[in-house]
Structures are given as structure tokens and as C-alpha cells.
Amino acid sequence: MLAGRKACSVAKVLAALGASLLALECRSPAFAEQTAQIREGQTIAEEAYLYGFPMIVNYKVMYEYAIDRSSAQFKAPFNVISNEARVFTPKDTAIVTPNSDTPYSLVEVDLRAEPIVLCMPEIEKSRYYDVQLVDLYTDNYGYMGSRTTGNSAGCYMVAGPDWSGAEPRGSPRRFAARRSSAWRSTVRSSSIRPIWTT
Asked: According to CATH, what is the number of the domain 76-189?
């Protein structure tokens, strides 16, 4: 019995001594510096994740829509417009939550070499449409459509950030992407006739 009490006391003393040494270690400048470095590393990792996540997700969409011809989600190669004569369903999985009441036309545009010109036909005044220009970081860098450029026919040049050259005649407006990579242009048209209020 006495041997058991001694073992228990020794264990308590060793535990108390270990806790004391750990407490002293935690108060040391080296431990504080190491803790600060760990926190800084965690902060950098979190910021990198928040910065890179949209690009990774949109690269996946771009890959499925314009590169991987064997993908069930493939739409068209770069710089070719794909028109969907239907609304999206749960089978359309490349984008997490596409609108399920909107017919889409999509084009993955590659602006690294040269700009493209998108020409829109006249759209009935009673219908709503828009062309959203968005980069891989989901930054919108332009809109064409009912609310911004109107429903009249028109051509619009979309250029990468480093492009400089003569603009084609008849391009009334130029949209400049902010990053040098491939970009998505989404043409959406409403499947309903909206009621405009003034």
C-alpha cells in the first residue's frame, strides 16, 4: 500500500514539475516568438485561401466548359459562343448554383493575344438581357445590356489589360479586363418579360 502511495506522490510531483516547466517555457520570449510566427503563418494561409479560392473554382469551370471536351459540362472551345436553348438543371454541376430560370449563352474568352468584339443584336425593349464580363477572380469588369448599354444593337470590344492597338471602327465602347489570363463572358437573357417601373 505504501509503495502505491509513493508512486502516486512521485507521479504528482513529476506532473507538477512538468506543468511548472511548461509554464516557464510558455513565458519565455522564444515561445512567444514561435507562437507569433505560428499565428502569422495561419493568417497568411487564410488570406491565401480567400484570395485563391475563386480563381481555383473558376479555373475548374473554365476547364470543364472550354478545355475538357470529354466533360459532360463542355460548352465550346475558347472564343466560341455556346447557346443553351434550355434552363440549367441539377445535372449542370460545373457552377455551384446557376440560375435555374435563365437561358444562358456563354463564352470563355482568351484575351492574352488580342481583344475580341462582341456584337449584340437589337433586343425587344420589353425584354431584359445582360452580358456580364467577369474574370477568374469573379471581379466584374464590365456589363452590356438593358440597364447599362440599352437594348439597341451594338458592338463592344473586350481587351486584356496589356493590349494596345487600333480599335476597330464602329466599336462604341471598350471594356478592359484587369488581369492577363482567360476570362469568362456570360450572356444572360431573361426568360420572362420584366415589368419596368419608373
From this structure: 2.60.40.1610
